[in-house]
Amino acid sequence: MTASTTAFYPIGTPGVAWGATEKAQWLSRQSRQRSYMDEVVSAIERLRARFDVVEYGHIAYGDDAYPLFAVKSREWDDALPIALVTGGVHGYETSGVHGALRFLDRHADDYAGRINLLVAPCISPWAYERIHRWNANAIDPNRSFRANSPAAESAALMQLVEPLGARVAVHVDLHETTDTDETEFRPALAARDGKPFEPDGVPDGFYVVDDSEHPQPAFQEAVINAVAQVTHIAPSDANGQIIGSPVVAPGVIRYPLRKLGLCAGLTDARYKTTTEVYPDSPRATPEQCNAAQAAAVCAALDFVLDRP
Predict the structure, then answer these.
(1) Sequence-separated (6 or more) residues with CB below 8 Å from residue 119
(2) What is the largest CA-CA distance in the chain?
(3) CA distance 96 to 266
(4) Domain residue spans in the chain?
(5) Is the pLDDT of residue 2 over 50?
(6) Which Pfam families does the UniProt entry name for this protein (predicted)?
(7) Running DSSP on this structure, what letter comes out for residue 115?
(8) Superfamily of domain 3-305
(9) For position 272, what pLDDT does the model report?
(10) Span 116-138, average pLDDT
(11) Is 5 a residue whose pLDDT tops 80?
(12) What's the CA gap between 41 and 258, in Å, rounded?
């Protein structure tokens, strides 16, 4: 059998993109495994005494409805630059969500009066509850930050951020690369699109994705150096790559962020990065992963604030 005709996923026909029937079958296999309200919204509510909390959208799939929240600096000053922090674009990437919340709780006060903070900790709550990459329509929100977005989660964040314009100086988008990327999510993507599945490795450690169209190597290096104090940095593979992309510096690869519709390409910020931790590593704990995400945010903000 050729790669295109070998069954590698339990839904669909190899080589044929999914239609409505296959997407419905996929959806029927998804189940709630944790609570957005109990684990995320409750933490946001505890921050209301120190920050402004904005409900910027509402997501509904059938009987499931979710308010979308962003946390803002209480003493917002239009004369200051803006730092955007996003997590949970992929709901299953747990430390993206809880790393953003950790930053708010433990570190954000250090930046009061220096930079405006806008933090959206969990952009895709349906997927957070189901520990999944896609939304209920089998759409990846992190390929959907573009005009007429097919993902309601992405469209809502775009609407929130659009009025801020060029004042966004830095954007840190918090992600994970997990073992299930290789065992579930990449096979599902290939099956959905009617393409062959090509196995790849999962890097053991933290790395970042720079913008190939506007690279900022010193900025990425500052993030890597800070996180290296918390957890280990992913090495390149035998081909000098991480997830199929050339390593341009220790722990750094590059993507065309806006062209791919990625969350980190959402703004015109000069400094932007996508973080990736590896929670399945025997060398890292959930606590380390959350701390690494928070350290990355702090390093990014410190780098920007140290420059005119």
Answers:
(1) 70, 71, 72, 84, 85, 86, 87, 100, 103, 104, 108
(2) 63
(3) 17
(4) 3-305
(5) no
(6) AstE_AspA_cat (PF24827)
(7) S
(8) Zn peptidases (3.40.630.10)
(9) 98
(10) 98
(11) no
(12) 29
